[in-house]
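Researcher: Here's a chain I'd like modeled. Treat it as a single chain, no partners, no ligands.
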Amino acid sequence: MKKWLLAAGVGMIAVTSGMGSAHAAGKTYEFAIVPKSLNNPYFDLARDGCMAEAKKLGNVKCIYTGPVNQDAAAEVQTIQDLITRGVDGIAISVADAGSVERVIARGRAAGIPIITFDADAPKSQRQVYVGTDNMQLGKDIGQQLIKAHSDAGTYAMISGGPAAENLAQRVDGVRDVLKPAGWKEVSGSPTFCNDDSALGIQQMSDLMTANPNLNAIVLVGGWPLFTENAYDAFYNKHKSAIDSGKLTIVSADTLPAELSELKQGKVAALVGQQPYAMGAKAMDILLALKEGKKQDPIQYVGLDVVTKSNVDQFMKK
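Model: Modeled as a single isolated chain. Structure tokens:
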């Protein structure tokens, strides 16, 4: 059963509940999953994993709520509202690590298990982080650029929010690989699109205008590629450079539009996260914490490296 309810001025709440034997045997727990924004299709997969696992567990309801657009203050307010409501556990993809420390402390003081997923707040009182090894993700993207563009040149990065811990780690990982290989990062990199696809595409164009001989653009999140038709305008303008290998685009994430763009040769490689697994594992971890079971504080899900050689396999998924 699934219901959609309006969350006052913040976004939408999705609730699903299973009717398995565990549900019949005892208490049903309400666990909330809070993305950075509801308008990012990446987080739709985390929602789907949360919903599916809640149904499987039977004694869990998944609440999916957060700011419509990325907004650290609105995310903090969402968490506070969930604490006031008295939910049984919260998983947060943190937009600004510093901004959530106090509200997480309030939740923990109220006895609510709180974890982070996708983006961490390591200095907070969160109990577990479940998600990507973001430093490794950055390194993998850098390595894929070197494979696709063998001659070192100049590159620029596009990131999301400047205060997001996970994205800062990816940027560091890219630099750790590219700098020793002789690549030079241009002035003004990275730019920050605040997880806004249209702004990300505009920043790609602006980078090319400022650096006409740029050899690579590294997207530490796939925002500019999430809407296939929108990216087409950039690709068509720079088709000759991309098709010839003079300009190489590599990106994080493996959403359907990105896989299509890779198959068509519009990007060189993708390094995908597993948000569905994050959403599912968040429910398992919160249930375990609620039941008093000790959990490892860092739990990584895997990464998928996708190139033209294996893109068909991933498109079938």
